[in-house]
């Protein structure tokens, strides 16, 4: 039985990857942070009761900023494969906590690689590093491939640039099987609530259910190459199964504007928008309702009395969500991963949006009582 260690197992990708590796028969260890609230929601369905049988999923407390902890966990678990997914992963927040981001995302990667080396595991343990399309930053060329120059545009991306190169360096210096997956944006119903896609699908669900009036959003013109996290964790695994350690771009090759993602998500509940104004004045107005689609998506009869807001502003721009330096356009070239890994995404953007909207509709419909009692902070 192969043994894997996943840092960031409680995150979106960690959850899908843990599920995939368990299906493949792996023994899976994960590192989770101590928090004042239980933070294992995304992997609770994978829990195995140690009182009933020997579990194949074991969690260890740890943190990317604690070298001794990481070294001990690696020593105890002796993994064949480490998937280093843990990171402070929010680009906008990295401008607020740049030093912590550098420590966890940049030096954290060094801690993992150096622990493997110090423990003499460099010929046994393969390391996957969660690199990112944010490395490309300010557009140099499109589509972006393994050979496109990097120009990071946030403290997050700069920290990830260090992590990228230290991974390459340990591979070259010590012959380690250490690889970067340069993954473009990938989303799912498990996506963190403050990333733009999930923020949109949550707002669409709440607006359709009459629980929210308006979606406040940042840059509508940013373009992203969005895929489904389930497809992308498959690529992570494939990267570590190759004969030779190499770096790979994982992307769909299709880019979409934030505004068009919003249109697609609202269309799924039968709401069609028209856009007026420009820049910070731009608004998305409810132009037309497809009543049949509304009833189909929400499972509720369309009630014209409660939907008195045709011409209501459903989307407004709030500069609070702008970044000091933005990444305007990401579009990946997945040729190498298709040809060498045989990797192809199974989901398209339409099915991704649909799955996310349905999941949020279900959640907000079932938890109406919680939502109305529980205001929360937005990012
Ligand atoms: P998430 O933000 O959903 O998950 C991040 C994980 O890292 C969580 O488990 C989090 O724990 C953990 N974590 C954060 N800081 C620390 C720390 N100091 N010590 C230990 N654990 C920590 O990210 P994703 O799952 O979306 O992404 C996974 C990785 O892939 C990240 O490194 C991200 O930067 C990178 N990436 C993501 C892409 C995407 O589109 N999703 C694209 C390219 C790269 P907790 O649950 O306690 O917060
Ligand atoms: P990104 O994802 O920065 O690409 O990083 P995010 O979803 O946060 O932003 C995508 C684009 O949407 C614009 N945007 C907004 N973003 C957020 N979060 N909230 C808003 O209200 C909003 N309005 C517009 C952003 O400006 C941006 O252009 C993600 C993370 O998962 C990283 O960890 C990962 O490395 C990259 O994807 C690839």
TrEMBL record:
Family: Belongs to the NAD(P)-dependent epimerase/dehydratase family. GDP-mannose 4,6-dehydratase subfamily.
GO MF, one annotated term: GDP-mannose 4,6-dehydratase activity
Known cofactor(s): NADP(+)
Pfam families named among the record's database cross-references: GDP_Man_Dehyd
Entry's transmembrane regions: none
Its EC number(s): 4.2.1.47
Residue stretches making up the NAD(P)-binding domain: 5-356
Catalysed reaction equations from the record: GDP-alpha-D-mannose = GDP-4-dehydro-alpha-D-rhamnose + H2O
Keywords per UniProt: Lyase, NADP
BP GO terms, sorted: 'de novo' GDP-L-fucose biosynthetic process
Protein name, per record: GDP-mannose 4,6-dehydratase
Annotated organism of origin: Litoribacter ruber
InterPro entries: GDP_Man_deHydtase, NAD(P)-bd_dom, NAD(P)-bd_dom_sf
Cited function: Catalyzes the conversion of GDP-D-mannose to GDP-4-dehydro-6-deoxy-D-mannose.
Matches recorded under SUPFAM superfamilies: NAD(P)-binding Rossmann-fold domains
